[in-house]
Specification:
Blueprint (H helix, E strand, L loop, with lengths): L4 E7 L2 E8 L1 E6 L2 E5 L6 E13 L4 E14 L2 E6 L2 E3 L5 H20 L8 H20 L5
Parallel strand pairs: 1-7
Antiparallel strand pairs: 1-2, 3-4, 3-5, 5-6, 6-7, 6-8
Helix pairs in contact: 1-2
Length: 143
């Protein structure tokens, strides 16, 4: 039996990752899923979260905002709405996005803002920013 999985993470802008791994953990719509070589065929939805790619000497991490995953014959294809490998995440930009989203939600809760705030959009932006920062932290790149 093959002891590796071939993984591709693809977005509209192209292939974000292609390689072999010992296993991976993905954010499924009903919770995190672990995939190992020999896994049964599967198609499932993905949600915002962290993908962990397990390699013999270290793990790689990516932030995604949702998508679909197919597992077939030790090949995993992830079609993601957006995906960023940890080393590609701009930490300052992610922190700034998180602060902006928090400020919008605080302003809305205090009703100090004269402009309309789309609360769902601000919450989604906050989740995306926090997710990106969690990926950086897991990869130990936060310095």
């Amino acid at each position: 039996m093959n002891r590796e999985l071939t993984v591709e993470i693809v977005t509209q802008s192209g292939v974000q990752y292609r390689g072999t791994v010992d296993g991976l953990v993905v954010p499924g719509t009903l919770g995190y899923l672990g995939i190992r070589p020999g896994h049964a065929p599967l198609v499932t939805g993905l949600t915002i979260g962290v993908i962990t790619l397990r390699q013999p000497t270290h793990d790689l991490h990516a932030a995604i905002t949702g998508g679909v995953m197919e597992v077939l014959d030790n090949h995993v294809t992830i079609l993601a709405d957006t995906a960023e490998m940890a080393e590609d995440i701009d930490i300052k930009r992610a922190r700034s996005a998180m602060q902006r989203a928090q400020d919008r939600l605080i302003a809305n809760s205090k009703r100090t803002s004269a402009t309309y705030i789309d609360v769902d959009r601000a919450r989604a932006a906050l989740l995306r920013a926090v997710n990106r920062l969690q990926v950086v932290q897991k990869a130990d790149l936060s310095s």
